[in-house]
Amino acid sequence: MEENKEFEEKKPQDTEESGTENNIETQEYEIPEKADYEAEIIDIIRGNEPAYVKKEKLNDYHENDIASVLEDLDVNERRRLYALLGLDRVSEIFAYLDDPEEFIEELDNETAADILEAMEPDDAVDILDELEEEKSEELLQLMDKEAQKDIDLIQSYDEDEIGSKMTTNYVSLSLDLTIKQAMKRLVEQAADNDNISTLYVKKEDGTFYGAIDLKDLIVAREYVELESLVITSYPFVYDHETVDDCIEELKDYSEDSIPVLDKDNHILGVITSQDLVEVVDEEMGEDYAKLAGLAAEEELEEPLSQSLKKRVPWLIILLMLGMIVSTVISMFEKVIVGLPIIVTFQSVILGMSGNVGTQSLAVTIRVLMDEELEFKQMLGFVFKEMRVGFFNGLIVGSISFIFTGVFIWLVRGQQFMDAFAISGCIGVALALAMLISSFVGAIIPIILDKIGFDPAVASGPLISTVNDLVAAVTYYGLAWVFLINILHL
Amino acid sequence: MEENKEFEEKKPQDTEESGTENNIETQEYEIPEKADYEAEIIDIIRGNEPAYVKKEKLNDYHENDIASVLEDLDVNERRRLYALLGLDRVSEIFAYLDDPEEFIEELDNETAADILEAMEPDDAVDILDELEEEKSEELLQLMDKEAQKDIDLIQSYDEDEIGSKMTTNYVSLSLDLTIKQAMKRLVEQAADNDNISTLYVKKEDGTFYGAIDLKDLIVAREYVELESLVITSYPFVYDHETVDDCIEELKDYSEDSIPVLDKDNHILGVITSQDLVEVVDEEMGEDYAKLAGLAAEEELEEPLSQSLKKRVPWLIILLMLGMIVSTVISMFEKVIVGLPIIVTFQSVILGMSGNVGTQSLAVTIRVLMDEELEFKQMLGFVFKEMRVGFFNGLIVGSISFIFTGVFIWLVRGQQFMDAFAISGCIGVALALAMLISSFVGAIIPIILDKIGFDPAVASGPLISTVNDLVAAVTYYGLAWVFLINILHL
C-alpha cells in the first residue's frame, strides 16, 4: 500500500470536473454504479419481444458482454441466439470467449467451421489450439481455402515467434492510386477488416513499401499524390523474429499496428496494439512465473498434473542444491557443537542473503529486458548493484550487530564481550553475504543472457539457494576462524 | 529455455511463405538484416542537401526513430533539426523520448511550452512530471488555456486512478448529424486527433451516449441514420476507478479506445490501446517488483539512494521476522547440541518450504488479478494449492528420505536404522512443511485482497520468511519428539 505514496503527485485542482473531492481517499470517492449489461442482455434474450426487436436491442451491446452471458444460457437459448444474431456477429462474440471449446463442441461441425472462418485468423487459431487435434483438423477441412491458408500460416510459427501473434487482416493499397481511388479501396476492404487505422502500401512486385496513417488519408486534399502520404521507413518486424527480441521495439513505436514481413519483404500480416496488449501480458506473466520458480505460467482451471509438472522440476533442482548447502554446513560440525548459538542465527543470514539476491535478480532481469546494454554499461550496472548490496549490508549488518549483541548479552546471559564478538561475527557475515548476494543476483542473469539463455530462468529460488551456499560458507567460516580459532569461545 | 518447449506446436506446413525452413531452429533461421534507420537519419541531418530536401526525406521516417537519434546530435544540430521539422513534428518526436527533460532544459521556455502544448495532453503530463516542480509550473503558465485545462485535469488524478492514464484527445459527434455531416465533422477533427478509430457520441445534455466504429461510418450508406450505427451500451470506465480495478475489463474488451467518464457521465477522455500497453506493462512491472521484495520498480539510471529506499524497508522487516525464526530455533537447543546432524539439514527444509510458498504466492497473485473469484471458487483454489503442495511434498519428501538416508548411513557412518530414522524425520518434515507452505502462500494474498490490501505486497521473501517459521517449528519439533524423546538418539 505504502509503495504507491511516492508516485502520488497531488496538484491543486482548478478543473470543475473533479473539484473539491481531491482530498477524499480514492476508495471512498463515490464511483457511480454501472449498469449491469450482462443482466440486461439476459433479460432481452429471455424476454417476449419479437425476434427483430431483440436483435435490434442486442445490436447496442458489446460482443464481449454478450460473450460473458453465453455460459448463463442453456444450449437451446444459445442456439436461438446464434440464429438471431447471424454468423458475423456470432463469430465476433466467439473471439471474446474465455473457454470457447465447450461452445464449439455443442455445434455441428459445419456451423462451427463457418464461425471460425468468419473470425480473424489469429482468433480462430487461438480457438483451434484449444480443441482436440482431431476436431481441429476436421473443422479446418471444412473452411474455405483462404481461411485455411491464413490459419496454416499463423500455426506454422513457434509460440515464441512474432508471426504466431499476427493477424492477417489488414488493408493494403497500391502506390498508383489517386486519393479518391484509395478511399474507395479502403471502403471496399473496411467491411472485412478490423484494422484500418494504418493502411499498407505495396510496391509493384508485392514487397512492402510503406504505411499511410488513415487520418492522413481522410484529411488529404484530392489533388495530392498518394505517395506523399506514405511513410516509407515505417517500422516492421520479420515473421521469425522471437517475441522477446522485438517486443520492446513494438512497444516503443506505440503504433496501432506494425507489419510482419517474410524474408523477401512481402507483408504477411500485422501486429495490432490489441495483440500487443496480449503479448506484453503473456510475456511478463511468463517472466513473473519464472521469477517465482515455476516452469511456466499457470491458469486457474489447470488440472493438478499440469500444475505439478510446472512446479516439480524446479523443486527437485533446488532440493539437490539444498543438499549441497547442507553438506557444506556439515563440514562445520565443530562450530555447531561448540557454539550452538551460531546455529540459531543461521536462518537469518541465509534468509537475508537470499532476499537480497532475489531483489538484485528482479532488477537485473527487468533491466536486461528493457534495454540493450553495452559491456561498459553492464559493468556499471553490476557495480551499482554491488554498491546497493554494500550499503544494504552495512545498514542491516549494523542493526543486527547491535540488536543481537544486546539480545545475546541480556537474554541469553553471555558475557558482554563474548556477546558482541558473536554478534559482530553475525553482523559482518550478514553484510558480506548481502554484498556477495547482490553480485550473484546481478551477474548470473547477465551471464545467462550473454550465452544466449533466457535470463528469467535464473529464478528467485535458484538465486536464493546459490546464495545460501555463499552465506553458509561466509558465516560458518567466519565463526570458525574468528570465534573458535582466535577467541577460543 | 526448456520451459518453452511445451508450448511449441509445430504443424506440418503447406504455405509457401515459410516452407522448408520449419525444422531449422529459430535462432539459426536467417532473419534479414534490417536497415539502420537511425544511421540513415543522422546521415540525412548531417548531409549537405538543401533544407527542403532534408525535410522531405525525414518525413519518411517514424518519429520514434528520429527521437532515438536526438541524443547523438549536438545542441546546435538539434536546434537546426527542430527548425527544419516544424513544431507539430517535433512535438510528436518529443512524445517518444525516454529522457525528455534534458532536451526540454536546453530550449527556451517559450519553445518548450509550444512543443508541450502541441503534444497529446497525457504525453505532456509525462514530461512535465519529470521536470522540476518550478520549471513545470513556468511552462504550464506559458501554454494556452485549453492545454492547461487538459493537463490540470490529468494531473488531478492519483497515479493509481485510471483518469491519470487517459488522453483528452478524441473525436466526438452529436446525435443529430447525418452520415455526410458526421464524416465532415470527423475530417475537421481528425487533423488534431490521433485516435479516430472509435468516435464518441454525446447526448444533447453533453452526457455520453455511445460509440461508433469508424469502419461502420466509412462503409455506411448515406441515407441511414447515424443513430443506427451507435453502440449505446459501449463499455466505459469512471475517472476515479483504480487502475487495478478496471485493467482486466479494459483488456477484455480489446478495443481501440474506451471512454473515461466523470460521475455525471460526461466524457473526459479515452484510454487508447496504446495507453493500455503502457498501463499493463507498468502494473505487471510493479507486481513483479513486489514479488521480489522491492518497494517499487527500479529504473536503470536510478541514483543509489533511490534504490536503497526501495529495497531497505523490506529487508528490515525481513530481518525482524528472521530474528523471530532464530529465536524459535534457539528454543530447540537440545536438538542442536544432541543431534548436530539435524542442524545440517535445516537449510534444506527452510529453503524448500520457502520455494514452495513463493510458487503458490505467484500463482495466487496472478489468479487474483485475472479473475473475480467467488468464495466457493476461492476455497476450491486454496484446496487445489494444498493438493499441489501435498503431492510436491510427497515427491520431494520421498526423494530426500531415500537420498539422505543412504547419505547418512554410508557417508556419515550412522547405523542403518538410525540413519533412516533421521532421514525419515527429514522427509516427513519436508513434506509437511511444503504442504503448509502451499497453504500459507495461497491464503495470505487472498486474505490481503479480501481486507482491501494489494495482494502483491505479500512478497516472495515475506512468504519465505513466514514459511521459515512454519518449517523450523515442524522440523525441530518432529526431531525433538520423534528422535530425541521416542528414539532417544
Automatic annotation (TrEMBL), chains A, B:
It is found in: Cell membrane; Membrane. SMART domains: MgtE_N. Gene3D superfamilies: CBS-domain, MgtE N-terminal domain-like, SLC41 divalent cation transporters, integral membrane domain. It comes from the Bacteria. The keyword Transferase does not apply. InterPro entries: CBS_dom, CBS_dom_sf, Mg_transptr_MgtE_intracell_dom, MgtE_N_sf, MgtE_transporter, SLC41_membr_dom, SLC41_membr_dom_sf. It is a multi-pass membrane protein. Keywords: CBS domain, Cell membrane, Magnesium, Membrane, Metal-binding, Transmembrane, Transmembrane helix, Transport. Residues 1-30 are annotated as: Disordered. The chain crosses the membrane at residues 312-332, 339-369, 389-411, 420-448, 468-487. Residues 166-228, 230-286 form the CBS domain. The keyword Translocase does not apply. Acts as a magnesium transporter. Belongs to the SLC41A transporter family. Homodimer. This is Magnesium transporter MgtE. It comes from Eubacterium segne. The lineage of its organism: Bacteria, Bacillati, Bacillota, Clostridia, Eubacteriales.
